[in-house]
Amino acid sequence: MPLSDLRFLALNAWLKRIFNADVTPTLISGDASFRRYFRVQHKDISYIVMDSPPELIKVLPFVNLANAYSDKGVDVPQVIEVNAEDGFLLLSDLGDIQLLSVLNSDNVYAYYRDALRLLDKVSLVIDNGESGLPLYDAAFVQLELDIFSDWLIKRHLVIELDEKTQNMLKTAFSFLIENVEAQPKVGMHRDYHSRNLMLQNEQLKVIDFQDAVLGPVTYDAVSLLRDCYVRWPDALVEQLMTQHFEQVKSSGQLDRGVSIATYTRWFDLMGLQRHIKAAGIFSRLKYRDDKPAYMADIPLTLEYIRDISARYPELEIFSAWIADSIIPAVEAKL
User: Fold this and answer.
1) Engineered SS bond to 151: which of 46, 61, 284, 329, CB 3.0-4.6 Å?
2) Is the Cα dihedral 39, 7, 213, 171 positive or negative?
């Protein structure tokens, strides 16, 4: 890292005080936020260091949630040292193997089955030990949906929406918000997918949980099964979706009177809302945060949006607009 990187210099000084020795942090990644992650080695033990500028993202919410998840039996990074003032954390190292990197048609069912079972524990985290998790309510969802309009449609595609299209989007988004409000609420990871599940000694470990909320029972399941970064056959998704349906009924998180048809509708529309949000966020990452790599993931999110919305008469016009106007416009700018 350049010597002009003052945060990196401060990080090095902090690590030297902890280990009482010089160590060499190696940048391993930034995520879709303002955080950076480094790996350090000391006495043959590997650690992860989080660098999170405190004026942008404070570290204590991560620490509190890590403890809350651990208390419920979810394997997450152990917090070893905390420097809240400067925004540094020393964490245990869960390795480099993202679940996505090992998935194939032969093993995806078994891994996703286990990941769905893990949601039984994830969903029990409804507070961070100090206060309840934020509620994923109508206002929260509207803000997320607006990211699509503001960053993908207006900023990236430079499309000015006429009044008719604005009204169409308002109707479609209201329909999706009603779906959120109709569902039972559980502890929700909010970004539960194959890049945020690590494999260590063939055990699933969970990362990137710091934005957890209290939200719809289908959210994390559809986030996993209709992953923004990979698409699996519908028959497989439906099989695993049914497993989660039975799972949450058995746990009492879903009333036994709720039918599979109702659950499927909740699941489909929840995934649709997530993909709309994701398409907007991927664009915002490029233009606001100078992280253009995520733009390559927009076409898959739009395919999901087109295909799933076409299943519902209330969204047929929206689906056609995505298919006829938005997908061609995005492809033209690739």
Assistant:
1) 284
2) negative
